[in-house]
Amino acid sequence: MALFNIPFAEPEESRALQDVAYVAFGNQKPLLLTLMKPRDKERTIMESIEKAKVRLAHWISHNDHHEEEYEAFAQQLESAGQGAAAGHVREMIEYTRQGTDCLRKSLDAINNG
User: Whole-prediction pTM value?
Assistant: First the structure.
């Protein structure tokens, strides 16, 4: 699918323009495009950034919770005499921490960017 950047007219000119445009590609059904004014585009970008912050914070919390569960599971495995299996789970915990650190860096970059 192709994405086209269609600039919107200045406010004086925009009164004559419609908010949507239909574009047909060959024999396909028309594609509905929503035209956005620059300030709407900025608001949409800001909303996307706020959503990204929420998603990143959720994933960080989610991973932290899983990390706790994984450690408890590794301890159970160890208690059951499955030290090698527990070691592999703990190795996975380290990878999870590394991934979570990347998410934290991403969130910090947004907040301090």
Answer: 0.59
